Amino acid sequence: MPHPTFFNLPEEKRSRIEEALKDEFAARTYTQASVDRITAAAGVSKGSFYQYFVDKLDAYTHLVRGLMSARIDLAGTPPPEATFEEVLTAIVLGSHDFHRRDPRGWAVLARSLSDDAPAILDSDEALSEDIRQWTTTAIAAGQATGELRDDVDPGTAAWMIERVLLGVPHYVMARFGIAPDHAATTGSAFDQPEIAAVARDLVAMLVAALAGNGTPGRRDAGTAQGTPLGAQNSD
Amino acid sequence: MPHPTFFNLPEEKRSRIEEALKDEFAARTYTQASVDRITAAAGVSKGSFYQYFVDKLDAYTHLVRGLMSARIDLAGTPPPEATFEEVLTAIVLGSHDFHRRDPRGWAVLARSLSDDAPAILDSDEALSEDIRQWTTTAIAAGQATGELRDDVDPGTAAWMIERVLLGVPHYVMARFGIAPDHAATTGSAFDQPEIAAVARDLVAMLVAALAGNGTPGRRDAGTAQGTPLGAQNSD
DNA sequence: CAGTCATATGACTGGGGAGTCATAGGAGTC
DNA sequence: GACTCCTATGACTCCCCAGTCATATGACTG
């Protein structure tokens, strides 16, 4: 956690620092990111930086946590009675929305899942679970009602969905030739019909990937059940 | 490309160096990998290293290229008449096989797709292209025969599949806690039933994602319909 | 004014790491 | 033995980086 000093800072200065953090961690890997560059960009001395944050990791964690909760707030929590397709649609739209509003923040979150990044969300954090567990929960629920096939592991399914969704912005940008910095300014890119079509196709495929076959509870529910992310072995 | 000196080396020494490269790049990110450690492990002076390779990237590229072609050779090219499911299965099983034979090499390739790694295969190189080629071909063929749905864009579908398949190694490592260095010693990790289950689940889901619904050529076929995503985007 | 507390600062330290270079074998050739 | 390639070597240079510290500013207190 950042030191109290950081939170006592005048709003303007604090957000300048947060912007600098976002810039740096959006543009570079955690390892490659440099505190010197951050402080230079923020117009703050290095000594100050270490009066705000315990260390580089602390600053990074603060940034990522903020972005993750922003991301989650944006999406909102789907009502429990929502169908899987609705949940998925909400996630896709939320992802697009978030990317549109805060491309750099989005890049930071995307990077935060890479090998190089410290595991902020992997184990110790509650936020970790949030996004993935969200999907996992929705899938498990769908399996229970028979809406979704129950012959696949919810964790694996959740991973697959997350994996696809996280790649979408990059794919869209590459395919439709949208420059990264351009994306930052023009918020409207994702409103183009071709791009909406991509989103539609993806949701359609993901839904089909998990659709139940009309006979709830068929097949052996044993293997897949009760095996959320962490729990392995003893099959 | 490595200098000729490298290829003139006695077999034993050259492979010692290659092993050291593999060790280092399997255990660490490209940025984190250190030439000093590599030379120390290989029992070679740093000066020699730079007589073999232009620079760190050159050595890395040499390693990854070798591994990629080994990987591709192992998989072979699927026959054109293979079904989509067969192609997918072959790809996934190929990954299995490769891991069993060369866990460290497998880890290097898995890492080579991360943010941090220089883009050796992003555009000009084989592995990514290879998989996309297979999938695109298989999808086009499948859509033609009615095996696969044709209401989604083939390019988008191919991208999605590629995206999922390329992420599998990382996911498996993360989920089952296979450290790259640990993977080096326990060659049997991939034989665990849970991992086989992941592979099975993914293939099943991807096949389902693209399956035709018995009425080839129909648009608007079933599961995913009713909520065109793009339409909602009109905020 | 004197004192105290929170905040700012940037030179500095210690630790790597990539890439270089002067020097030293060693193996053939005449 | 002398000359020439090719190969080895590790100390060395330059650069960057995370984190520290002695020092300074300034506001508020009495």
From TrEMBL, chains A, B:
Key words of the record: DNA-binding, Homeobox
InterPro entries, sorted: Homeodomain-like_sf, HTH-type_TetR-like_transc_reg, HTH_TetR, Tet_transcr_reg_TetR-rel_C_sf
Domain of life: Bacteria
Composition-biased stretches (Polar residues): 224-235
GO molecular function: DNA-binding transcription factor activity; transcription cis-regulatory region binding
Alphabetized Pfam families for the sequence: TetR_N
DNA-binding stretch(es), residue numbering of this chain: 34-53
Name of this chain's protein: Homeobox domain-like
Gene3D superfamilies with a match to the protein in the record: Tetracycline Repressor, domain 2
Organism of this sequence: Propionibacterium ruminifibrarum
PROSITE patterns: HTH_TETR_2
Residues covered by the HTH tetR-type domain: 11-71
Residue span of region Disordered: 215-235
